[in-house]
Specification:
The structure is a homodimer.
Chain A lengths: L5 H7 L11 H8 L2 H13 L3 E2 L9 H13 L3 E6 L2 E6 L1 H7 L3 H7 L5
Antiparallel strand pairs in A: 1-3, 2-3
Helix pairs in contact in A: 3-4
Chain lengths: ~110, ~110
């Protein structure tokens, strides 16, 4: 067993874009995928941080990791580590300020599987 | 010169889907394209019917026709003929009822070319 150092853990925290650098095109490209919308809808409903494994998705683990990556790059989620679990939270307030009404509209219209 | 009959003109009016048959997936696929968002944004701002030729788009006429087709199929616009001009209108109220807040959010966030 290899113990992770404190520094190592900090390095594992992925970068997050500044919300001012996010464009609507990138956001819509992220939200057009139904699996990514499901992640967003679950985080929206949960109102708390969820680990990647908590969200039941119909895709492989590596594909799921890719989807979380796209959402992070589009400014929709913030990720951090809690022990060995990668946790996810919606950037709800920041996103609402940048794209008023969009998150709610997409989550409300989320009626597909 | 061939005169179009009244019946012929009516036949040229394309079919419009029932808003209840429209899913969020189809709508987002329509709105993810920046040219289609530009059409929607111009119709939203104009608040009146616009002919296809009125809306300045950076694509060929046949590509533009395709984009209008996709928007019509996704329930975003209604088309009709006025003489030989194909006119376009946003299905603003119907769409708002089916997907509350989405149109406004996308048009407000329309900050790209």
């Amino acid at each position: 067993m290899t113990a992770a150092t404190g520094t190592g853990r900090r390095d594992r925290v992925p970068p997050h874009p500044d919300m001012r650098d996010i464009g609507l095109q990138q956001v819509l490209e992220a939200l057009v995928d139904p699996v990514r919308r499901r992640i967003v809808a679950e985080l929206y409903a949960a109102r708390e941080d969820l680990s990647c494994g908590t969200i039941d998705l119909p895709v492989s683990k590596s594909t799921a990791t890719h989807h979380f990556h796209v959402l992070r790059e589009a400014g929709l989620i913030r990720q951090h580590y809690a022990g060995t679990s990668r946790m996810n939270a919606l950037r709800r307030e920041e996103f609402e300020e940048r794209f008023p009404g969009l998150l709610r509209a997409v989550v409300t219209g989320h009626d597909e599987g």
